Amino acid sequence: MAPTQPQPPPPQTNNTLDRVHAARISKTWPLLSHGGPLVTRNSRPKGMDNPGVLCYRRAVLQCLLHVPELYRYLLSARRCRCREKGCVACALRRLAEVYWSVRETEEVQGVVEGVDGALRSFVGHKDFGQYDFLRNGVQADAMEFLEGLVNMIRAREVEVSGRGRSISRLFNVTTRRTWTCEDCGRTSALRAKDLAIRVALPKELEGQPFDSYLRACFQDEDLPDLRCESDACVVDHPEGRNRTRRTRIVHGPELLIIQLLRFDFDLKVMNLVKNPYRVPFRERLDLSEWTVDNTALKYQLHGVVAHRGASTSSGHYLAALQCQKGSDVATANDMSIGISSDREWLLEPRRGDGDEFDSYLLVYQKVGGVMRVVD
Ligand SMILES: [Zn+2]
Ligand SMILES: [Zn+2]
Q1: CB atoms within 10 A of CB 13
Q2: Where would I find the USP domain in this sequence (predicted)?
C-alpha cells in the first residue's frame, strides 16, 4: 500500500478581496476598510426622514455612510470639531456617529436635519451661490448635491488645516491627458481632477459589458484644434493637424463615484430626457487598464443611488447599500429599510416591492490601498 501523499497547501494570496472571495475570511464591512478593522456599535442601516422632496439627499447620504473610509475620514482626530450649526463637516460627522451608534432611529432624524441646516447656512455665508438650491427644499440632482457637500467639507478642511488634501485624496479622480506633436515630437501633459468618472450611455452600447463603457470613457480622442505648445513649432507648421490625446488615471480616490450619464438634453422637447436602459456594472471594478503604467486599481461597490422618473429634478431617489454584514444588501427608501441576501438588489435597485429604479451614481471603495491622512 502506497503511503499517503501530503496534500499541497492551498494557494496563498495577500489580497483581502481575493481572500474574501475564497471565503477564507468573512465578507464583513469593516474588513473591506483599510487600516484595520473598523468596529461600530450598530451595524444595521437606519431610515432617514424626508420632509418633502429631499430624497436625493437622503439617498446620497445613505451611500456615503456605507463607505468605511468616509467614516474613518470624518472621525479622524484632525477633522473639524467646531460643532457650530453652520459647519457641514461637523454635521456630517455627527450623522455618522449617531447612524452607527446604538441610538434609536428617531435620533438620526434630528442630526439629518442638522446636515440640511448646515448646508443652508453654509451656502448663505460662504459664497457658494451655485448651490443655492440647498437653501430651500426643492428637489435637485443627486450628483449636484454630492458635489456641493464635498466642496463645502473641503472649504472647511482648508479653513481648519490650511489645506484640503485629505478630502481630495478621498474623492478626486486625477487624470493625466497627454498628446504628442507629430511635427516636433514635443509631448504635452495636462492634469485634471474630477469628483467622478462620468460614463456616457450611448444607444449603441446597450447590452454590452460594463468594460465597453469604460473603454469608451478612456478611448483616445482625435482633436483637430489642439495646437502645439511650442510657439516656434506653430510658426513652422501653421496648418492644424489632428492630434491624438490619451487620458489615464494618475490617482484613484479611496471613494470612487461613477456617474451614469442618463440624462441628455433633447432639443425637440427642450428638456432633459432619461435613457433608462440597464447598465451591467459589477460589484467589483478593475480600472488597472486605465491607469498610467497599468498600476493596479481595484474597487468594491458599497452603494448605488437610483432614480425613478423622467428628470433628475423630479421623480424619486433611493439607495441600495452594502450592509456591514457582508452577504446582505439593503434598500433605503427614505424612512423605510429593506434588507435582503439577494445581491441583485445592489446591481438593480428596487423598492422592495419589485418596483425598479434606474442606477445613477455608483459608490465604490478602493481595495488594497492605504489611505494616508496627509494634513
Ligand atoms: Zn466644524
Ligand atoms: Zn510641435
Answers
A1: 12
A2: 46-367
How far is the centre of ligand 1, averaged over its atoms, from the C-alpha of 75 (Å)? 12
Which residue type occupies 223? L
Q: Which ligand is nearest to the CA of 232?
A: 2
Q: At residue 2, what is the residue type?
A: A
Which 3 state secondary structure label does DSSP give 259?
A: strand
Domain that holds residue 272: 46-367
* Nearest ligand to the C-alpha atom of residue 80: 1
| Å from CA of 4 to ligand 1 middle | 66
**Total residues belonging to the chain:** 375
pLDDT in tens, 328-370: 999 999 999 999 999 999 998 876 566 789 999 999 999 875 4
104 lies in a domain?
A: yes
C-alpha cell at position 197? 468618472
Question: What confidence tens digit (pLDDT) does each residue in 84-139 have?
Answer: 888 999 999 999 999 998 888 889 999 999 999 999 988 877 677 788 888 887 88
How many structural domains does the chain have? Answer: 1
Ligand closest to CA 157: 1
CA–CA gap between residue 331 and residue 340 (Å, rounded): 8
Distance 121 CA to ligand 1 centre (A): 13
What is the C-alpha separation between 265 and 1, in angstroms, rounded? 78
Asked if residue 37 is part of any domain, the answer here is no
Q: Which ligand has the minimum distance to the alpha carbon of residue 89?
A: 1
Residue 137's domain is classified under what CATH number?
3.90.70.10
Tell me the whole-structure pTM to 2 decimals: 0.86
